[in-house]
């Protein structure tokens, strides 16, 4: 029987949406279909066998829409296999210290939905496109000397998906 997995995400400028799309593509196989949707467009979890939920991190905070989704859907999510992922510039350098920092961002998700026990947490670098940022945020990024660029590691994302897929469909 074909399993159906929802990849739910929040995004600011599209970087996390791109990661979510890639996760959905990598999950899809002969016996798995994946549906990729922004969290604010999800009205029900009925019909899904598992859920992957992702958020960008901005100023050390997860996207409010992702946290609201987790809080509102906690009872349903608690009954399904769930994996989390975050997209943050902390992961531009994949070191133990940066992984610890990125994983700490998920504490807000854990607090929003304490009944959900994720099987895994993907920690990924994102992209900075100054043209997609609001003017005040561009100024902040320049002051922080943030280097524009796409730092998403597609091979790392694909490897994580291959690792979690059997757990999602078990």
Automatic annotation (TrEMBL):
Q: Flavodoxin-like domain spans which residues? A: 5-165
> Which Gene Ontology BP annotations are present?
heme biosynthetic process
One example of the protein's molecular function in GO is: menaquinone-dependent protoporphyrinogen oxidase activity
- Pfam families the record matches: Flavodoxin_5 (PF12724)
Which InterPro entries does this entry report, sorted A to Z? Answer: Flavodoxin/NO_synth, Flavodoxin_dom, Flavoprotein-like_sf, Protoporphyrinogen_IX_DH
Its protein name is Flavodoxin-like domain-containing protein
The scientific name of the source species is Ornatilinea apprima
